[in-house]
Amino acid sequence: MDVLFFFEWLDTSLLAQISKAYGGVFAVVQMFHLLSLAMLGGMVLVGDLRLLNILMTSVSSEEVIDNTQKWFTVALTVMIISGIFMSSAVAMKLYYNEMFWAKMASLGFGIAFVYLIRRPLLKYDHDTINPWTLRLLALASITIWFTVAASGRWIGFS
Amino acid sequence: MSKSTLEKVAMVSSSLVLVAAIWFWSLQVGDVLETLKLAYG
């Protein structure tokens, strides 16, 4: 399915007019995007390093995962909303950028991984889950969100 | 999905993610090295 029509629409939308005309508004939205990215990365690291028994070992992993998951969802929501606004400024450039699509693919996979696999599995008592599954899950989670962040930065170099 | 099925899905998908990420980032770093070689010899 070709989504070119969506990017053409976004490029001429009201969002694009605002993001192109007002640099200050773009900068503020970008600040929220980066803050939420930092928060998301922090929640992923705290949760997954706890699953790997590296961080906060005196607190139960169930409690750490419960608390980080809430803020992860908040950060992801802010990141997506601000990301749509920011991409409206360079919609056509992004459409033809391979790294943008790598980022979108890893973001889509990351969301599915968190809400369809990681979260449902970690609702069970962690002591009843195979420790190697927990370790692999944590490593994969860190890898996915590193790829989302790094490929986003890579867009600027490609 | 039952817990054992979820565990299996988690194992398989996590392994696939790690393999795919190694492959993807190796390609990216390879491309950068090639560009640097072209630029600086």
Short précis:
By secondary structure, chain A is mostly helical.
Keywords:
heterodimer, A: 158 residues, mainly alpha, B: 41 residues, 1 helix, 93% helix
What does this structure look like?
The complex is a heterodimer of chains A (158) and B (41). Chain A is mostly helical and 158 residues long. The two termini of chain A are 24 Å apart. In chain A, helix 3 packs antiparallel against helix 4. Helix content of chain A is 82%, strand content 0%. Chain B has one domain. Helices cover 93% and strands 0% of the residues of chain B. Chain B contains one helix and no strands. Chain B is rod-shaped and about 55 Å long. The mean pLDDT of chain B is 92. The interface between A and B is medium-sized, with 21 and 16 residues.
Strand and helix order of chain A: HHHHHHH
Number of domains of chain B: 1
Distance between the termini of chain A: 24 Å
Q: What is the helix tally of chain B?
A: 1
Major protein interface: A-B, 21 and 16 residues
Approximate shape of chain A: elongated
Task: List the total number of helices of chain A.
Answer: 7
Principal-axis shape of chain B equals rod-shaped
Q: How many β-strand runs of chain B?
A: 0
What integer is the average pLDDT of chain A?
92
Question: Which secondary-structure class do the elements of chain B indicate?
Answer: mainly alpha
Total beta strands of chain A:
0
State which percent range the strand residues of chain B make up: under 5%
Radius of gyration of chain B: 18 Å
